[in-house]
Amino acid sequence: MTADGRRARRLTATVTDLDVARQKALLVGVELDGTGSDSVGRSMRELRLLTDTAGSTPVETVVLKRRSPHPATFVGPGQAEALARDAIRLDVDVVVFDNSLAPGQQRNLQELFECDVVDRVAVILDIFAQHATSREGMLQVELALLRYRLPRLRGKGIELSRLGGGIGTRGPGETRLETDRRRIMRRISNLDKLLAQVHQAREGQRKSRTGKAIPSASLVGYTNAGKSTLMNALTGAGVRTEDRLFSTLDSTTRRFELPNGRLLLLSDTVGFVRRLPHQLVEAFRSTLLETSRADFLVHVVDASEPSAPEQVAAVREVLDSIGAGHLPEILVLNKADLADDPTASRLRGLYPEAVSVSALEGTGIDELTERLADHLALDSQQIDLLVPYPKGQVLGRLRREAEVLAEDHRADGTLVSVRLPVDQVDRYGEFAVRP
Q: pTM for the complete prediction?
């Protein structure tokens, strides 16, 4: 492992807010005016899963109501005191808020509760830190963590200053807090540069793939929808799969041959979640660009999840934020074997064009591959070209940039049958063989 990788691993182990050991957690949600109790209920159920995945055991859930957040404690003095008593009674190690807390609010609550206080963003960042395995993934997570922690730095200020012993060195000096801030900002700058290099390398890989005019599709979906399992079922990629949130962080791309012989590049990447922290979106931007530059999306949905429509909306919101919302989409209702009849019927009514599959059982995979083939057929055209021998560079370009189906060397040139994107057909019009 490189020095940067070791440093990233050490930092993700030290700056996360939740212990890897099984802590006891009190979960707190606040229903603000206009939020809606159903939405808060779904979000709290998801927070329970997130907390469990992060390594803590939820022991109780509390949902409060407020018109607006209190500037000092988010929940107000009275409710904060009541939560502090609950934390003592339950003997919890950490209080997890479903709402995002400002640094000052988090600090005030932590002093009052006398235990760790974190928010939903910290929990998700902790999960990413635990699951990052590649150098790129660890650097991305470290960057997100530092951006989250920077405004939350605390120091004792002037009392940590040292006086100098010569001309120009006397005075209050620099506080420990200022030193820590500057060190973290330097590390953030270095991480930005390192990830820019990774992005350039990824761009080179992408250009080498797209230069051959092989269409690409990106698997997207809510976390734990079964994207990696579907990737394995289609391509045999051997991507790690777990029945846990965010088990896949690193992008994987594999060639996949469709029943009609066409090749497709299929990519699997990180899953999405409601209110995905903006620090992660920024840090994983180079990875997410794989999605925005695909020719179309394969949107995987957990058909057994009652809140599947809300998850679909959450995924599409993230896709819009990374510039991929305009891409064509094939909706796949995965885990269809686990869906009860009312849920399955509701989803079929909402998404009549969707394909129902069970990636784990292998059912519906043939129908999905046919749908993929049909989609590609709409965007490409097979033509026959007669390329004269003096125009050998054209034939070379076709071999690099098109899908060559057959070649026949004749007296007057090479007859080549190719499949091209529709917008590229006119480029080779002078060599087209007329019926």
A: 0.71
